[in-house]
Structure formats: C-alpha cells, structure tokens
Amino acid sequence: MYDIADIQDIPPFSMDKMEKERFLTGILGELTAHHYERCPKYRRILDAWPFDVDGIEHYRDIPYLPVRLFKEYDLRSVGELEVVKQMTSSGTTGQQVSRIFLDKETATNQTKILTKIVSDFIGTKRLAMIILDTASVLKDRNMFSARGAGILGYSIFASQKVYALDEEMHIDFDALDAFLKDHEGEEILLFGFTFMVWQHFYKELARSNRSLDLSRGILIHGGGWKKLADEAVDNVTFKAELQRVCGLSRIYNFYGMVEQTGTVYMECEQGHLHASVFSDVIIRNPWDFSEAPVGEDGLIEVVSVLPKSYPGHALLTEDMGRILGEDDCPCGRKGKYFSIGGRIKDAEVRGCSDAYAAKFT
User: Fold this and answer.
1) CA dihedral of 229, 231, 235, 240, whole degrees rounded to 10
2) What is the pTM of this model?
C-alpha cells in the first residue's frame, strides 16, 4: 500500500497526461483493493457491479460511488476506534448530510496535500489572514461541518488571523482596521465561502462609507455559485466588484467537497480550475456514463489518492462541467483544466456556502 510520504514532494502540477495516468492508475488501484478488503458495504457494491479488483487497467474503469451514497450509509475502511474525526457536509434543515470517517493518517494526509496544492498559488510563507466569516462558526456545533472544516483547513496558511464578521454577520471594521494597520505593507491572505463573501462582506462594504485597502490581498473562495447565479453574478463580476470596492485583484476560486477533503481544484490566473497530480476529473455523459470528450458537458467524477479510511477515492458528483484542455493551459501548469456548469436539476443544495445561501431564497 502506498505511503503519502513517497509522493507528497511531487510538484502538484508537474506530470503530463501519460505519466499522470500511470501514476494514478497504480495508486487508485491499490486503494480500490484496500477498500474492497476492509469495507464490507463497498465490497458488496463492487461484487454487484461486477468488477475485478485485480484487473484494473485504468483508473477511469474503477467503479465510482455517487456522493449521495454517503448520506445513506456509513462507509468506512477502518475500525470504529481508529476514527479520530467525523466530517459532515452542510445541508439545509431536514436534509441528510454526508458522513465521512477519518483516521489519523487520512486526516494528516489531507492537510499535507492541501498545503502542497495551495502553496503552488500563494507561496509557502505563512501570511496574516482575514477570515471572511464569523468566529461563531467554530463555536456552534450546528454550524461546524464543511464550513468550519474549511476555515480550519485554510488556517494552516496563517501566521495570524482575524475574523472579518461579528456574530450578527456584519463587518467588524474596528478589528479589520487594527489588523491591517499591524500588517501594513504585507501580503494578506483572505479566505471565505463565495456567497458569504458576496452577501456579508462585499455588499456591506459597497454600501458603506468605509474603505479597506486590500490591494495586497490574496482571496481564496469557493462554493455558493448557484445563489449568485440567481442574482446574475458570475465569476467575472465577482472579481471586478471586489477589486472596485477594496482593491482585491488576486482572487482564486476553488472547487472541492467534504467527501474528498484536502483535494481541491484551484483556479489559475487564466480562470481555469486545475486537477493536481493527486487527483483528477472525468466528465461522464449523463445518459450512458461514458467518458465525454474535451469540451463536452457532463457529470463530474472526481478521483483522489487521499481517502484511505473510507471508500471515497472515486466519486460521481451531482455537478455538471466540461474539460477545457490538458497540459496546455497558458498558466503553465500541467494536467486537466476544466469549468463548472452548475448542479444537475433537482439535486439537493449540498455545499456549505450553498446551504447557507438557501436562507436567503
């Protein structure tokens, strides 16, 4: 079984198509056999497929689990006593949530790989950090799920941090002014969930008479696009308006999910989402689930080398997207780059920012 220590120093966007396919097929094949042996429910799924665990020729052939399955069943490949953390997806009231079981090794590996991927975009130096949320999110267990985990996960990049919003979800200008004064002339990292950044930070700042100079800021944000699309706010508008009201120009969207925590797809300077060497995306035709060609819309399948404590290494999402290209993005990063086209019709609101946004419908 592979050890993350053997691969964690690989530059995250360094492999071309053929090299990456060999690399991922080997590791994902090992993971499939690992979960088949250790997770009885997963074994029954593969036996019903049916699927030969010992005959994997390419990772695209590995059976994918619908993400919704984690709402219905407890799927884990470790004993109960080995579970150190249980992650849950966010959901609106009455919705079932995904339950993801992490052992110490998987939780540690998630942090290591998240660090490698994000550092390729923002550098390795820890930065003063503004969290575009309220500190209450980490105190209220009803709020602490993917949202709280996201804040904690990205806090590893912080040398110091401050929360931009008070408990009433209003901008704490006094705290921000003091923080920015203490770190004058420094690069500042900002993190938040897309809808919340727009609803509680941008909108209040735009209608206030206060100003914040975040021209040296780097914003990482993700989730919540469905509600913003309803308001006719796309990625271009989002970036332009934030630059207008506070000078932010380095803005990186990301795509990810609690079912594969630590595996993130960051947006490059060209506006493309990128798959690192530790993960990949496959676009599936929604009618027959065959692999769709470049440029064609379909359901997004995500694969990741990280899930060892639960069988989440090959998942079919409820999101639509398309591959834009591979190994030839103008940003210079190798691997597939892609775009998201929204959630399939009638799929549940499931992201932490989307679930929060549902309150405003």
Assistant:
1) 170
2) 0.91
